[in-house]
Specification:
Chromophore lyase CpcS/CpeS, single chain, about 180 residues
């Protein structure tokens, strides 16, 4: 009797293992089917290669109350180019003006882009930063201070049917849509 129970338990266990393996295989196949096709060259998806740009400039400009001069516009720009081997060049500008205080931050960097699943990692090897806080007498410059930045990434279509690259900070606090510069 005991051997019959052990035999039935082994058959049942073997059947469950086959079912689990089959389910795992179906799950893996289903997940592969749902992932969009992205072709790669040297580890960088071909869809990510080339130039991408993001820019936001405020259409509102105001007059400075004391001098009556037009204040500098507010805005930001980020443009980068990724090569098939993962090298990148990137330039960013942030400019803001409040009353009589115009400030800007310009960052230029070169390095390697890495892809880790849905993560896009910028690893700078060379960088230059220049900024100004409120006046030309309060400017600064730094070299090689840029840090590694990691974003989640996806490709989407905008309202015009053009492909855009969406980069989102890992904490979900910031998301930007990059298009191909014209």
């Amino acid at each position: 009797m005991r051997s019959q129970l052990n035999n039935k338990a082994q058959i049942l266990t073997s059947s469950l293992v086959r079912i689990a393996k089959g389910t795992l295989n179906l799950t893996l196949v289903a997940s592969l089917v749902s992932i969009p096709h992205i072709s790669r060259a040297d580890g960088i998806p071909s869809q990510l290669q080339g130039e991408w740009g993001y820019r936001r400039i405020s259409p509102i400009q105001h007059k400075e109350g004391y001098t009556g001069e037009l204040a500098q516009p507010n805005g930001s720009s980020d443009r980068f180019k990724v090569t098939p081997n993962g090298n990148y060049e990137r330039a960013r500008l942030l400019q803001t003006s409040t009353y009589d205080c115009a400030s800007y931050l310009f960052i230029q960097e070169k390095g390697q882009v890495k892809i880790d699943g849905e993560k896009l990692i910028f690893e700078p090897s060379n960088s230059f930063v220049k900024g100004q806080q409120c006046s030309a007498s309060n400017t600064y410059q730094r070299r090689n201070t840029a840090k590694v930045e990691t974003y989640s990434w996806s490709l989407e279509k905008n309202d015009n049917g053009q492909e855009v690259l969406v980069l989102e900070t890992l904490d979900g606090q910031s998301k930007a849509h990059y298009d191909r510069p014209k």
